[in-house]
Design brief:
The chain is mainly α. The chain is 71% helix and 2% strand. The chain has 7 helices and 2 strands. It has helices at residues 21-44, 56-69, 73-98, 103-139, 144-184, 191-213, 226-245; strands spanning 9-11, 254-256. A two-stranded antiparallel ribbon has the order 1-2. Helix 1 packs antiparallel against helix 7 (226-245), helix 3 (73-98) packs parallel to helix 7 and helix 6 runs antiparallel to helix 7 (226-245). The longest helix has 41 residues, at 144-184. The chain is elongated.
Length: 259
Amino acid sequence: TPAIPAPSRPSDATGSPAPDRALSWAAACVLIVGSVLFLSGGRAHPAINAALGAGPDEFFRGFAEKVRHTHGWHAMHMLILVGPLCWAMAAPAVLDVIRPDAPARISAARSALLLSAALWAVAFVIDGFGSPVYAEAIASAATPDVASGLLTSFQADVVMMSRFGLVSWVAGGLGMVILGVLLLSPGARGMWRVAVGISGILIGIWPLAAALEGEYAGGPFVSRFWMANAAVVAMWYCALATCALSRVPGGRLKSVPHP
């Protein structure tokens, strides 16, 4: 009985499986949506800096009042929270399409971004939903001693949130560095991808450098560079999305039958 030939599957010129174009489009859309939501939430968030108060007590009392009187505090934090979750899910999927020959390195980037997203979610649940509870309790405290105790607890809550946020932002930056390196690999070359890759490495290094230098000593969110850094990261993920929508290097895919 003659052998039935195995069905062929598409592959590129090197014999690697053909990229999944539907996956690339879906991942690109998630990256762009996540960035837009992240920027929308960040734009609505009030500035948190030394203008709230000179000393620690004054600063945290001012912060609590800012929380109480800011409309849409819960909603804006949910928007800020969603961005890194979308990036963690979709960015490695883009590289799965562009670099199907580098699963180990993509897995490393995915691990860093998932760690970043998990810590980010914890930080912004604390800030978005825990902080208003403390703020209202401080404002309605029956005695100064009770208010002082609540203020100390609120301070611990804010410090914990900022540290989760710092570790998350550094881990996310390391994930960006790995993604950027992958875009510079020979199998994914192209002038635009090279530009996105180099910028990803430079942007991704910044959180770790800022943490080591002391710029993020009080947490990334009170840094004078925070808003610019956050906006640049969100725009970089939009640029990465465009890499998924471009033609795969090497021209048209062809079908290579498997023996």
